Amino acid sequence: MAVRAVRRLPSALHRGNCRGNSSKAATYCVELVRKRDYEGFLCTLLLPPESRHSVFALRAFNVELSQVKDSVSQKNLGLMRMQFWKDTLQEIYRENPPHHPVALELAKAVHRHKLTKRWLTRIIDDREKNLDDRAYRNIKELETYAENTQSSLLYLTLETLDVKDVHADHAASHIGKAQGIITCLRAVPFHSSRRQVFLPVDICILHGASQEDFIRGSQERNVKDVIFDIASQAHIHLEHARSFQKKVNGEAFPAFNITVPLDSYLKKLRKADFNIFHPSLQRRDPWLPLSLYIQSWRKNY
């Protein structure tokens, strides 16, 4: 019996190591999201337990991709990072993920919820296309990017909630577009400090606002009008998503908690008279956790 016990010991230790590695990978994903996507972190905490870990993996995956553009000095380096994630996704669906914490947790989420590969691929592909340092030609191009990244993430979140509902998908599409547009606006001060402007060219031309106006942080009316028009489009998408709220499966509502910080930002932007460089827009909303809890309790979006 002693011999048999000794023979069993290595496998028991191996299982312990696997559990330890799995726990570390899950913690890594949660911490990455907390540090780099704080609003997404708070929203995910309010999800049902059976989907929470999977959505942290999805959001960590999204963070990894979103950081590529600003963390590499050359496009070729960014393309290499994107290729790593393309290869990783292939291996995940072959049930052979690499030993990367986000890949390991994403593989568990894919297996647990049978996540649609197309949405994950779409996120990578559009993040890769966005490595080019050029402005969006028009608001439609920005909306397409938002649909392929933010809306795709919401479709995957719905899958973790086991929601298959055409109205929920429709809402996710519009909410994702609103989020993508607002994310573009929120990044304006950061990009301007690096002498970069990615706002839709057609709207800038309409109001006679040049890239240099944004780079020097202009607070002239024409610059504010550009921001107003873009923010209005985000607001329209949110309102459209809410217009058929009664038709959406109630199980989908937790996936749409992100509307709370989006509304909060638009409200602060209006209060700042659409001055995108106003200091108040760079500060976290201290009431956001409470607002999220209230919306979750009310079961709406």
TrEMBL record:
Pfam families: SQS_PSY (PF00494). One of its GO terms (biological process) is mitochondrial respiratory chain complex I assembly. Keywords: Membrane, Mitochondrion, Mitochondrion inner membrane, Transit peptide. Its main location: mitochondrion. It is found in: Mitochondrion inner membrane. It comes from the Eukaryota. The keyword Membrane applies. The keyword Cell division does not apply. GO terms for cellular component: mitochondrial inner membrane. Belongs to the NDUFAF6 family. Involved in the assembly of mitochondrial NADH:ubiquinone oxidoreductase complex (complex I) at early stages. May play a role in the biogenesis of complex I subunit MT-ND1. This is NADH dehydrogenase (ubiquinone) complex I, assembly factor 6. It comes from Pyxicephalus adspersus.
